[in-house]
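User: Hi! I have a protein structure encoded as tokens and I'd like to know what sequence might fold into it. I'm fairly new to this, so please keep things simple.
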């Protein structure tokens, strides 16, 4: 892994951890998330940043790890959040936060430990 890719993976891991901490702070249920705009913005911002960072990973790294991480949809999620203009699909954001982000965080930690 190149140093720039390593730095991006570290930042992605950090945003995954921010999401975990935010869910721990506010609560784990969708009903709470659905009713709290600050909660929604906090999670959405971290997802947006993860998508932006993933787009900056080298093509070589993305290809080498594509069997474990779907980088394209991650960038697509960034675009969904960035361009939703007030109509963000909260269910998709929530499902991403609770189902996909923990797996992504584990992947990042494994990658950082190996390099």
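Assistant: Happy to help. Inverse folding works backwards from shape to sequence: for each of the 115 positions I chose a residue that suits the local structure. Here it is:
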């Amino acid at each position: 892994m190149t140093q720039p890719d390593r730095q991006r993976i570290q930042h992605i891991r950090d945003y995954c951890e921010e999401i975990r901490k935010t869910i721990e702070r506010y609560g784990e249920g969708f009903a709470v998330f659905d009713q709290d705009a600050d909660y929604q913005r906090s999670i959405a911002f971290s997802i947006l940043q993860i998508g932006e960072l993933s787009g900056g990973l080298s093509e070589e790294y993305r290809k080498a790890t594509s069997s474990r991480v779907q980088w394209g949809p991650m960038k697509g999620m960034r675009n969904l959040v960035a361009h939703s203009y007030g109509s963000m699909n909260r269910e998709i954001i929530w499902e991403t936060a609770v189902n996909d982000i923990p797996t992504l965080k584990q992947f990042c930690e494994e990658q950082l430990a190996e390099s």
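A useful reference point when you look it over: Helices lie at 3-26, 30-35, 37-55, 59-65, 71-82, 90-114. Feel free to ask if any position seems puzzling.
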